[in-house]
Structure formats: C-alpha cells, structure tokens
Design brief:
Layout: H1 12-19, H2 25-33, E1 37-39, E2 42-43, E3 56-58, E4 79-82, E5 86-91, H3 108-115, E6 139-145, H4 148-159, E7 164-172, E8 179-182, E9 185-187, E10 195-197, E11 205-213, E12 217-224, H5 231-239, H6 260-270, E13 278-286, E14 293-297, H7 302-312
Parallel strand pairs: 6-13
Antiparallel strand pairs: 1-2, 1-3, 4-5, 5-6, 7-12, 7-13, 8-11, 9-10, 11-12, 13-14
C-alpha cells in the first residue's frame, strides 16, 4: 500500500485499521511490534506517523486480504476527455475509486484496467493511474494518469493548489452569504471511518458561493483549495448546513429538525436521492505534456437534476 496525501500523519496502527477492519487494533500493534509491518522496507513502531508516499508492506496477513493481481472488468465508463497521457472520467455515484477491504471488485480501477493499455504505477498495484479520489457516493470528474510522468506533473499541481475543482451541492437550511471555511480536518476519534474538524488535523479550506435558495435548502457552488478526505461534507456539517442526503454527516437525520409545515416535503425530497447531493462538476488543470490549460464541465446526474426540479416546485 502507498500512503495517499490525505492519509498523511495518521498513526501507523490507525492507518492499517482502516484497511484491515477484520483485525483488532491490538492485533495490528502486535504485528507491527513483531516486525511484520514494514515502512519503505524498514521496521517501525505502532506510533509511527505515516507520510505521503510511504510504502506499507504487511507480511503476515493472510493473502485473502489483498488480491495478488487485479483483473480488468468490462464496466462502462463515461469519459469526458482522453489522450495518450491521461483521461478524465465522469464517475457515477456508487462506484468506489480503487480496491479496498469490502470493495475488491467493481471499482473504477477495474474499469480502467479494461479501458486502458497503460496506467501510471506510482500509487502501487491497487491504485494504478489514480491521482486523486472522489467518495463512493460523490459523482463527477476525476483525472487519471496513463504514465508516471503525467502522474507526477498532475500530483504536483494538486500539491501547489493550481488544479481547479468545482462542486455543486444542496445543503440543509438557508445559507445567507458566500464565504470560505478554513478549519483543520483529521480522523474522527469516535469512528475511524469518518473525519471531523480537529485542532490537530491538517489545514483544509473550502470556498462556497450561494446559488439557488429554497424553503429549507440552499444550492452551493464550491471550490476546493485543499483536498482532504470528506472535506466538503465535513466542512458543511461544521458550518451547520450538512449536505442534503449525506448518511454519514447529518445529511439525512436533519429532517427531524425541519419546521412541521416542511417536514413531509423534506421526506419526499430525501426519497429522490439515496446519497449525498454532491457532484464534482468542474475540473481544470494544465496538461502535463502539452502545457495546454484544460477546463471540463460535467452536467448534474439525473437524480440530482430531479431533486432540484422537485425542490423548485411550490
């Protein structure tokens, strides 16, 4: 496994807990202490904090946890742009980006292996071509590198924050004015599968602009300055306006707090979308080989279009 940018600074035992849910944390710590876990070829302590790019090898885990080789799967892809160096896919909601425990098949990576002859290998066998990610139930644009040269160039743009990533969402409540959320994000102490605003987290900045307004909902257009795990969803929950439909960050439970005259309508709207109403609609970057500026737009998926249409009805 290769540590991604957004996974940096986690304790090694906590990092592995996310990938090995069948093992207790004490068992993982025991494996580390026994030298069965190696970082870049060397032994470390359970308290070691992983760094982006670290190569993590687990030697004493049954092979069933990690497939030795990924098989290409003929899964349809919506391609927004493609050339010999990279492609941009329009990922549907419900598709996991790369294999992980619980999702060893049917991922975007499996589809890419069937679509492309070559993918960059920088992120290891489980993440070929993957430069950045979208959550399983977030739809929209994602760039994939076909070569290591393209991968390094695109990763450098992400690191320097010159990649433009725009999102459209629908949130609970009336957001009065546009602004920015500058709040550090780290892994939740209560649930390691979730993130939260934490003083000891990594800096995270999300810019938002108020769009269409409804009785108890607001459309926001967002721009990421940083790219932490679950950043938009965590930040909007922190703002007090969770993403509508988000099952993990209060986006479905808030229906109980809606004024009585709107509650039935809120329940009807929730029934239209079984996921968070969040779509990566814009992606802009410099082509790693030609130097051309590429700007791409993705239309809202059908379930979000229906949601907005229903929200507009009196």
């Amino acid at each position: 496994m290769v540590v991604a940018d957004e996974e940096e600074k986690q304790r090694l035992d906590l990092y592995l807990s996310g990938y090995l849910p069948d093992l207790s944390r004490s068992r993982i710590q025991q494996l580390i202490q026994e030298g069965a876990v190696r970082i870049n070829g060397g032994a470390v302590k359970p308290s070691y904090r992983v760094r982006a790019g670290d190569c993590v090898a687990v030697e004493m885990i049954p092979k069933a946890h990690f497939p030795l080789q990924l098989e290409a799967e003929s899964i349809p892809l919506s391609v927004a742009y493609e050339d010999g160096h990279l492609l941009v896919v329009d990922k549907p909601a419900g598709m996991v980006v790369h294999p992980a425990p619980g999702s060893w098949s049917g991922t975007l990576v499996h589809a890419l292996l069937a679509h492309c002859d070559d993918l960059s290998g920088i992120n290891g066998v489980l993440r070929p071509g993957i430069v950045h990610r979208l959550d399983r139930n977030t739809s929209g644009l994602l760039v994939v590198a076909k070569s290591d040269v393209a991968h390094r160039h695109l990763a450098a743009q992400l690191e320097s924050r010159t990649v433009r990533r725009g999102y459209t969402t629908l949130v609970w409540g009336r957001v009065e004015e546009s602004g920015a959320i500058d709040a550090p994000i780290g892994r939740s102490a209560r649930d390691r599968k979730k993130m939260g605003v934490r003083a000891d987290g990594r800096r995270a900045v999300t810019h938002y602009a108020v769009g269409e307004e409804f009785a108890f909902l607001t459309q926001l257009d967002l721009r990421l300055e940083t790219g932490r795990t679950h950043q938009i969803r965590v930040h909007l929950q922190h703002l007090g306006h969770p993403v509508f439909g988000d099952p993990d960050y209060s986006g479905r439970s808030l229906v109980r707090g809606v004024a009585q005259q709107h509650r039935r309508r809120a329940e009807e709207l929730l029934a239209l979308i079984p996921r968070q109403a969040l779509h990566a609609r814009h992606l802009g970057f410099v082509h790693p080989v030609t130097g051309e500026r590429i700007e791409l737009e993705s239309p809202l998926p059908e379930n979000m279009t229906r949601l907005f249409e229903a929200a507009r009805r009196p």
